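Progress note, project year one: complex with 2-phosphoglycolic acid.
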Amino acid sequence: LIRSVGLRRILDSRGNPTVEADVLTESGGFGRAAAPSGASTGEYEAIELPPGEAIASAREHAVPRLVGEVHAGNQREVDAALHAADGTDDFSNIGANSAVAISMAAAKAGADVLGAPLYQHLGGTFRGDNFPIPLGNVVGGGEHAKEATHIQEFLAVPHGAPSVSEAVFANAAVHDRIGELLDERGVPAGKGDEGAWAPTVTDAEAFEIVAAATDDVAEDVGFDVAVGLDVAASELYDADAGVYRYGDVERTPTEQVDYIADLVDEYDLAYVEDPVEEDDFAGFADLTTRVGDRTVLCGDDLFVTNVERLQRGIDEEAGNAILVKPNQIGTLSDAVDAVELATRNGLEAVVSHRSGETEDTTIAHLAVATGAPFIKTGTVGGERTAKLNELIRIAEDAV
Ligand code: PGA
Ligand code: ZN
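Model obtained:
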């Protein structure tokens, strides 16, 4: 049984406070995990409370339902206790940040008791052979870097890589090559919240640079490296005017779908996330009909890791993939339910970090445990490489 649950405020990668949980079991198992935090958060996500409030509320309501009551290794029971303690359907009482930190820390404590790696505890003994393709954020703007591109993320997609390690290094090579290309053009570039370059270039120039860099690296490494996007279109959408704004350029919802469909063909995009705003299931479905046979169309703000929203997407054939962020829904059980519903219906799962991260590596294990075909967790920067390096270790069976 769980002996204690400790909660504290620690720093995330943006320098903001976030919640860290320590779970200790009576048999001496220990797990520690921290909640990430988004900047371009979806409207329908579970609620993140200010960490101090989330910690106080979880100490009052959740900890007494866990300590001496639940086995850390029984993830369903841990997560049910968190839901019961909260009593709402969006974790607005104890905070999704407290909930997800406790949920992940309990999973690690459960794995520790078993002496098994986390991915195996979560996924079972036959997991660990299928590795996700890492989507590497290499250029970005939007809510993650002001004065950079309107599209939030330009991603390297090393889908021809023979191993996860080669894929991870290919993404890093693309990031490095883009740095050189920006330098050659005399474009100064800082980095955004996720470590991607955040140059002051137009979206069209960014496409040109990223395509050149992925081509160069593909030639070097000898396998295909494609381009992907997270448009994060909800952040561009002006609901009052009913238009998407790319600076001075406006696009109606119909024009937005045309624009994305054209980009898929022009740049052979292997992946497009949130091409339209979070309420536009019909636009998402239209795009799926048009280009869903040749690209991954992934719902992040559209689905928010929520099985009800995902079921609506399945019914309306909106998208063919779901982004899975445990903190969007609050527990690992809910996140796994979303992956399983997606997989049963032929959608691909993309396990993902947030723009605000910590050194926590749970999502690397979650991706392997669920057999997710993709993981999106950045390219460079310690809080990103923590997950990527863990994937390399898991592939080597060295965790
Ligand atoms: P967020 O961005 O963590 O700021 O929400 C990541 C994403 O949109 O995928
Ligand atoms: Zn996104």
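The pocket of 2-phosphoglycolic acid (ligand 1) is lined by residues 38-41, 143, 230, 232, 300, 352, 354-355 (CB under 6 Å).
The CA atoms of residues 20 and 248 lie 42 Å apart.
No further modelling is planned for this target in the current period.
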